Amino acid sequence: MVATTPRNTRQRRAVAAILDDLDGFASAQEIHDILRHRGESVGLSTVYRNLQALVDASEIDALRNDDGEVLYRQCSTGHHHHLVCRACGRTIEVAGPTVERWADGVADKHGFVDVAHTLEIFGTCGACAASAD
Amino acid sequence: MVATTPRNTRQRRAVAAILDDLDGFASAQEIHDILRHRGESVGLSTVYRNLQALVDASEIDALRNDDGEVLYRQCSTGHHHHLVCRACGRTIEVAGPTVERWADGVADKHGFVDVAHTLEIFGTCGACAASAD
DNA sequence: GCCCCTGATGACAATGGTTCCCATGGTTGT
DNA sequence: ACAACCATGGGAACCATTGTCATCAGGGGC
Hints:
The structure is a homodimer of 133-residue chains.
Chain A: H1 10-21, E1 26-27, H2 28-37, H3 44-56, E2 60-64, E3 70-74, E4 81-85, E5 91-94, H4 97-109, E6 113-124, H5 126-132
Parallel strand pairs in A: 4-6
Antiparallel strand pairs in A: 1-3, 2-3, 4-5
Helix pairs in contact in A: 1-2, 2-3
Chain A binds a DNA duplex (30 and 30 nucleotides) through residues 4, 6-12, 27-29, 42-46, 48-50, 67-70.
């Protein structure tokens, strides 16, 4: 499987630009809407395809919210987790070396191989909690 | 909010019985199929409703697999996480007091309130890894 | 045990996020 | 510029899940 270089299309650039601008996580549909409002309309299928390609290339992170929707965000490289505000989507990347070791240790102790884990922290950030009073 | 006692119907008992018998996680559709094969046919809507009720009552745990499907399992009470085999679904409950404290501490440090977290470990159990060779 | 009220059921429609299909158009190597 | 071929987009298809509503049955009251 020789990795073919993806073409540099207007749509691909537009999707990447949105992810550059956004701070928190956003769904594919939200990104599609933002593109429409910017006048840089891109087909919904294309948004999905490009997001999936970026995930495959490990250039963005994806996670599911409680509703099962997939959210995307441009993140730093390397393994990390997220502290996400339920209200505004603001996201803080967190590293947890201890947790990584713990998870691997638990799996190893039970004879599991090819181990991966998911860990996300959800809460309400200070600003949103204050404005909700 | 006075909790009304749910009625003791054949369908409710049948769904609970399946969860009693199963060891690992199963999707609503799988449980529906098992019921059909047992001859204790139950409407799909009813399966979903009863599973949701059991989740609300904290009598079973629910989590999403990579495909976004919701999986259900009868678990011990109290907060815990899961080590799940991708191949056979075998599940081991794990407690991680250190992780709990770490997650809460991280959230607190950033001023987040009303904090929750998700943590699941996926891997291939020894038996499945051996049979895959 | 029998009735009746009311919540539970189930067949089907509807929803919503995501993926598939395929004719068309734009990109890139030459 | 040319041509080959990948990317696009609009709509249909998919699939898990939820909603609708007429019908059914559990269980409290008698």
